[in-house]
Amino acid sequence: MMFSMHHRQPILPCTLLIAGVLAACSSTSDKGDDTTGTTGTTGTTGTTGTTDSAEADDSGEADGVSIPLRLTFSDGVTGVPIADAEFCAVLPAIEPACQTSDAAGMIETTWETAEYTDVLSRLTHPDYLTMLYTGRYEQDVHDGWTTALESNDAVSIGYIAFTPAMAAGYISTGDVTIEAGTGMALYWMVSADESSLEGAVITLEDASGAAVGDVRYQSGAGVTLDPTLTATSTAGVTAIANIPPGEYTLRVTHDSLTCLPGFAFSSEIPNVTTVPVEADSQTIGNLFCGTAAE
Questions:
Q1: 223 shares its domain with 123
Q2: What is the distance, to the nearest Å, from the Cα of residue 132 to the centroid of all Cα atoms in its chain?
Q3: Residue 7 C-beta-side C-alpha neighbours within 13 Å
Q4: What is the pTM of this model?
């Protein structure tokens, strides 16, 4: 699977691929071409059609939102569609809150939330680790979706999930053993030229500012973690294991760039995003680092 990114227009939370290359989720149209995307895990692309008029304004919401979504779920190693997966909206609260993927690993639904909001979705399946996908719906996302729907009938978003064995094997390459009852976070830093960002130092902090979790950076030479690294390699990927359930602040430090949420919760403070963590789960997101650090 290849990365697909075009500017900073993260739409809904997507995914990171640990098989072959750790990648941000990408969406492609039925025609097989990318339209708009982003990442972090989530460049948005779409698949053909129109939507109700929905012009964004400065009020913090979009008018007349009704955006068809085509969501697909696949195994992060084999690429096989995941049928009978329960996909639930945690934020914002919508109805129906949960839907189940069909035999092709697909769910078709509609986004009708006008207010700009953080987005959190949860995927559960007996054979897979519980996955939490972070994202946001804001004006840039709204604009990206609207553009995609000028020629597609739905915004198409791909999600990837991993088995517990796959996640444990990946973390073990960083000399870390996953502790039962804790969660894991996987975040990808993306630079202005849409490549992975090297040299970013990542910390995860609790409410007191204390560091939590075992932070490891992925090697630039393969899909393994390198416990000797103290900042992101050319892979741009950070894995944080053994995080107690709760909400935490992910903080990025880089010598020359400032990072903003991509497929991640919105933040008014640069280089910071909130990371929700649940027991025995994996949270995924990304940040786009495209402006000079002040």
A1: no
A2: 9
A3: 11
A4: 0.81
pLDDT tens digits, residue range 217-247? Answer: 999 988 899 999 999 999 999 999 999 999 9
Backbone angles phi, psi at 65, to 5 degrees: -75, 130
d(CA 243, CA 196): 24
Where does residue 52 rank: exposed (0-12), middle (13-18), buried (19+ CB within 10 A)? exposed
- Digit-coded pLDDT (tens) for 73-114: 999 889 999 999 999 999 998 888 999 999 999 999 998 888
Give the model's pLDDT for residue 57: 55
Q: Is 1 contained in some domain?
A: no
* Residue with the two structure tokens 């750790």: 22
Tokens of 142: 């709204």
Structural domain boundaries enclosing 82: 16-162
Asked whether residue 30 falls in the same domain as residue 157, the answer is yes
Contacts with 22 (C-beta within 8 Å, 6 or more apart), sequence order: 16, 186, 188, 218, 223, 235, 237
The residues with which 211 forms a beta bridge, in sequence order, are 205
